[in-house]
Amino acid sequence: MSGGTRLTAAAWLATVAAAGALTPLVDEPVGWLAQAALVLAVLGAVGVMARRTPLARPLTLLAQLVTALVLVTVLFVPGTALGGMIPLPASFEQLWLLLGQGADDVTRFATPAPVTDGIRLLLVAGVVLIGLLVDLLAVTFRAAAPAGLPLLALYSVAAGLGQGDITWLWFLAAAAGYLLLLLAEGRDRVTRWGRVFGGPSLGGPARGGPAAGGASAGGASASRAETSNRLSSPVRTGRRIGAAALGLALLVPALLPSLGGGLLDPANNTGGNPVGGTVTAVNPLVALQDSLNQPENRTVLTYSTNARDNQDMYLRIVALDQFDGTAWKPAERRIQAVPDPLPAVPGLSPDVARRLNVTSIEAADWYKQNWLPMPYPAQRVEIDGRWRFEPEGRTLVGDHRQTTAGAAYTVASLSVRPTAEQLKNAPEPRPSLVGEYTSVPESLPEVVAETAREVTAGAGSDYERALALQEWFAREGGFRYDTQVRAGSGSAAIARFLEQREGFCVHFAFSMAAMSRTLGIPARVAVGFTPGTRTGTGVYEVGIQDAHAWPEVYFEGVGWTRFEPTPSRGNVPD
Questions:
Q1: Distance from CA of residue 87 to its chain's centroid?
Q2: In whole angstroms, what is the distance from residue 17 CA to residue 13 CA?
Q3: Contact status, residue 566 vs residue 470, Cβ threshold 8 Å
Q4: How far apart are the first and last CA of the chain?
Q5: How many angstroms separate the Cα of 106 from the Cα of each of 75, 142, 157, 405, 550?
Q6: Which residues contact 275 (CB under 8 A, 6 or more apart)?
Q7: Which InterPro entries is this protein grouped with (predicted)?
């Protein structure tokens, strides 16, 4: 096998090995990876033939790109192509549409996601592009070391989206593939130095000289053997170094103190017990619509409580307080060890009536996510495992890959019962809170603010304005609840929802929160579960179809108050 062919095979293997890290992200890992591997093999063969012709480097890349386009057309949109192979303008249009659908599917489904046509195209096309770049660097330009950058990018995407589901085996496979590529490139470079000649032996004639006589053929054979040995020596050394590097890469992290992971980026680690850090801006809504559309309402949580009325027992997971025009998401905030008890509820006056509820919760073994569902506002949490507290949202977040799977915990929480008069007469919040929770992006269409002003015309207080928005969405505005509509939480999605007037809880919650902010009312969005179904005295089950989103509005003296604009789920604060 020639050096170029060996390099091509190594580049193919390194790319496929790194792409393997993407397989835990989808529920059908084999089919799309086989397609990507086949396309890359064909492109590698095209590259080998082009370089032997030889073609100029840009023409080699062009030949591979054209071949890739034809193969992608055959795999995904053959009905729009000439003879099922040659792409036409309609082919490009359909491919672009599939890419858009794939991007929507990525935000809609939780991992492992179903392999829709759009997601399959994203996976195959992404791996093929990375493979072409690796082949270009390692084979065409004979620079294997920089080829590690696209391979690292591919693995990093998988590790980031996997949120802890990517095991060390995938790292081992990706690293081994890259090391093999380096070894192949090093061997090719050594062989290009030419034949290695040994010097004359001490005290004897030079190899192959007249004194060798009839032994010249044997000398040549010995020379070739020595050359082979000298060439293989650095290869063997490289293999040993590579194996040692892989071993250290796997062993050292296991011996070091735990550095956190998943959602956390600890800033002050002290061994395995960090007490500070940040919770990053992740989007917990990717599976909400999928949850609502599940054919079977699988049990997520069971709980028992001493609450007099479980209608207030919304199990809140996280607060989305940042709206950038593209999506609502939790802001990046400091986290800390879980205090006992939790800090006082911000903004809650002693004059507001409240009752302490104690709730024992058990999560299903299959329910795996990083945010802990709790009644709001929690006062004390008793739970085993690695959990951290985020004070602004009063949420608990798993650390060191801690998840809710099989968790059993007890939460003491307040049932806050403000009167309508207390809400109407709430004083102005502090300016810093108003500034943070009333900001809206410039991309928000003016129709959102205009509609908010129209709906709340005549209301005399923030509470009355919030109540008017709730009533308009839930009863008076002609909205229809539908979980099959297109998902989205950005500015354009809100404007589209106000025009079409159909959607599910996400649309109602995001739209009311955005409209409240345009009126100067501090608002955010909460995600969690509705109270569930009673199965016994004080005992309830929460199913996957109880997943929900709702807006929270801030009133000084009362704190964050839940509203329910989603039709049929309205529960007006009183």
A1: 33
A2: 6
A3: no
A4: 80
A5: 20, 36, 13, 23, 23
A6: 268, 336, 337
A7: Bact_TGase-like, Papain-like_cys_pep_sf, TgpA_N, Transglutaminase-like
pTM flag (> 0.85)? no
Tokens representing 237? 């050394």
Per-residue pLDDT of the chain (574 residues; tens, 9 = 90+): 666 788 888 888 888 888 888 888 887 778 899 999 999 999 999 998 988 888 888 898 999 999 999 999 999 999 888 888 899 999 999 899 888 888 877 765 656 677 888 889 999 999 999 999 988 888 888 887 888 788 888 877 777 665 555 556 767 777 777 777 777 776 766 565 554 444 444 444 444 444 444 444 445 454 444 544 544 554 455 455 555 544 544 444 444 333 333 332 333 333 333 344 444 334 455 456 566 666 778 899 999 999 988 888 999 999 999 998 878 888 888 888 999 999 999 899 999 999 999 999 999 998 888 889 999 999 999 999 999 999 999 999 988 778 899 999 999 999 999 999 999 999 999 999 999 999 999 989 999 999 999 999 999 999 999 999 999 999 999 999 887 777 666 788 899 999 999 988 989 999 999 999 999 999 999 999 999 999 988 899 999 889 899 999 999 999 999 999 998 654 444 4
Distance of CA 281 to the CA centre of its chain: 11
Q: Strands 408-417, 378-382: parallel, antiparallel or unpaired by DSSP?
A: antiparallel
Single-letter amino acid, residue 32: W
CB 510 within 8 A of CB 296: no
Q: How many CB atoms sit inside 10 A of residue 402's CB?
A: 23
- Tokens 């028992």 — which residue? 304
Cis peptide leading into residue 112 (ω within 30°): yes
Taken in order 56, 57, 61, 62, the sign of the CA dihedral is negative
**What span, in angstroms and rounded, lies between the C-alpha atoms of 258 and 281?**
22
Task: State how far the Cα of 90 lies from the Cα of 240, in Å rounded to an integer.
Answer: 53
449 Cβ contact partners less than 8 Å away, ≥ 6 residues apart: 515, 518, 519
**Do residues 61 and 70 make contact, with C-beta atoms less than 8 angstroms apart?**
no
CA dist., res. 121 & res. 119, Å (int)? 5
In the structure, how many helices (H) and strands (E) does the chain have?
15, 20
Spatial distance between the Cα atoms of 573 and 534, rounded to a whole number of angstroms: 22
10, containing H or E segment: helix 3-19
Cβ neighbors of 450 (< 8 A, separation 6 or more) are none
Q: Taking the alpha carbons of 107, 109, 110, 114 in that order, is the dihedral positive or negative? A: negative
Place of tokens 């839940």: 562
10 Å CB burial of residue 458 (0-12, 13-18, 19+) is exposed
- 502-503 and 480-481 strand pairing: parallel
Q: How far is CA 531 from CA 155, 286, 451, 473, in A?
A: 40, 21, 31, 21
Taking every pair of Cα atoms in the chain, the longest distance, rounded to a whole number of angstroms, is 116
Q: Which residues pair with 26 in a beta bridge?
A: 113
Show the DSSP H helices in 20-116 as ranges. 29-52, 57-76, 89-108
Q: Which of 383, 354, 380 is nearest to 371 (CA)?
A: 383
Q: Are 329 and 281 in contact (CB under 8 A)?
A: yes
**Distance between CA atoms of residues 560 and 287, nearest Å:** 25
